[in-house]
């Protein structure tokens, strides 16, 4: 079931860091009931556009941060769908401490099924969203292509070293988080404490904006979610992926 959502003027905070948003760009929001979650989903662009895009944010983003990019993509002739993953943005969860990484993939697969039509679908993912986009494509078989800024395999020690804030966290993190199973799994801590979130942007003003966004990069996550992410594996081994994949990577990216 879906009901109208909210578009807050504060969501426009990221526009000044992107090329100007095309004037008159259609943008609507709805709240979709998915299990114990009320998922905030935005649709940008003309509803009758010939191509659909599902844009997936990462651990430092949300639909508001993706809005200026979604508008640029929509201007190319697509209708763009941007959900707030559980725990982020305006999505509401009854038990946020019980959100796990697998719930993100399950929600995206169900959203793809919910919105399926005859138009070609492209999945685009930023950061962890790249992994989620590819997993969603291989799970559903619904996408004609995937575009990602990164494809992370958290089981790889080198990936953990690049993702987590310090080398000792990358080495000991899985063991330490295993000890949190049980009563401490729901304890939430700022993501910037454990990740290299300070490298999410090279632009100081944009970085400050992102880190101050408590619905995005300034968010908290449960220890249980962190453990579930580090224990996750790609849905389909790379050599078995049969959907076209394009990696887009900025030459000045200091993190990925």
Tell me the distance between the termini. Answer: 37 Å
User: What is the tally of beta strands?
Assistant: 11
Oligomer: single chain
What's the main sheet like?
9 strands, mixed
Q: Which structural class do the helices and strands define? A: alpha/beta
The radius of gyration is 17 Å
- In round numbers, the mean pLDDT is 89
What share of the residues lie within helices?
25-40%
Number of helices: 7
Strand content: 15-25%
What is the helix/strand order?
EEEEHEEHEHEHHEHEHE
Contiguous low-pLDDT stretches (5 residues minimum) are none
Characterize the overall form.
globular
Your description of this structure?
With 256 residues, the protein is an alpha/beta fold. The protein has seven helices and eleven strands. It has helices spanning 63-75, 101-115, 128-140, 157-163, 167-178, 204-211, 223-230, and strands at residues 2-4, 27-34, 37-44, 51-56, 78-83, 92-93, 121-125, 145-148, 188-190, 220-222, 245-247. The strands form two sheets. Strands 1, 2, 3, 4, 5, 6, 7, 8 and 11 form a nine-stranded mixed beta sheet that branches. α1 links the parallel β4 (51-56) and β5. α4 packs across α5 (167-178) and α5 crosses α7. The longest helix is centred in the middle third of the chain and has 15 residues, at 101-115. The chain is globular and about 50 Å long. The mean pLDDT is 89.
């Amino acid at each position: 079931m879906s009901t109208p959502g909210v578009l807050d003027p504060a969501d426009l905070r990221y526009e000044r860091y992107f090329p100007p948003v095309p004037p008159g760009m259609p943008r609507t929001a709805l709240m979709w009931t998915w299990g114990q979650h009320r998922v905030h989903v935005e649709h940008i662009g003309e509803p009758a556009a010939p191509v659909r895009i599902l844009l997936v944010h990462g651990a430092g983003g949300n639909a508001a941060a993706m809005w200026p990019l979604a508008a640029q993509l929509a201007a190319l002739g697509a209708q763009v769908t941007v959900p707030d993953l559980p725990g982020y943005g305006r999505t509401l969860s009854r038990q946020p401490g019980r959100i796990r990484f697998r719930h993100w993939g399950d929600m995206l697969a169900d959203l793809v099924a919910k919105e399926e039509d005859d138009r070609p679908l492209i999945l685009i993912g930023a950061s962890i969203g790249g992994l989620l986009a590819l997993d969603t494509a291989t799970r559903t078989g619904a996408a004609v292509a995937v575009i990602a800024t990164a494809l992370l395999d958290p089981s790889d020690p080198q990936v953990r070293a690049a993702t987590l804030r310090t080398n000792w966290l990358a080495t000991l993190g899985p063991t330490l988080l295993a000890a949190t199973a049980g009563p401490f799994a729901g304890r939430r801590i700022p993501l910037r404490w454990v990740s290299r979130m300070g490298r999410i942007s090279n632009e100081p003003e944009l970085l400050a904006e992102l880190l101050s966004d408590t619905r995005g990069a300034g968010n908290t996550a449960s220890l249980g979610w962190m453990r579930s992410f580090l224990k996750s594996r790609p849905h389909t081994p790379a050599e078995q992926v049969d959907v076209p994949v394009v990696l887009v990577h900025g030459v000045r990216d200091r993190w990925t």
